[in-house]
TrEMBL record:
Every Helix-turn-helix domain range: 6-51
Provenance organism: Aurantiacibacter gilvus
Highest taxon above the source species: Bacteria
InterPro entries from the UniProt entry: HTH_17, SinI_DNA-bd
Name under which the protein is recorded: Helix-turn-helix domain-containing protein
């Protein structure tokens, strides 16, 4: 089963960006996140949309 949510660090690694850039994309609304307890996780669907240039 493929992961639906990934950590900020995993998202940064997948997109070859730094953590600061990931947070900037989150604030711009280009990456969607979900809160699980104290952790903020990025949806893999939003990572794929961004990588495909659909956002």
């Amino acid at each position: 089963m493929e992961a639906l949510l990934v950590s900020i660090n995993e998202a940064a690694k997948a997109l070859n960006l730094g953590r600061t850039s990931i947070y900037a994309l989150i604030n711009e609304g280009k990456l969607e996140t979900r809160k699980m307890g104290r952790r903020r996780l990025v949806t893999t669907a939003s990572i794929k949309r961004l990588a495909d240039g659909l956002d």
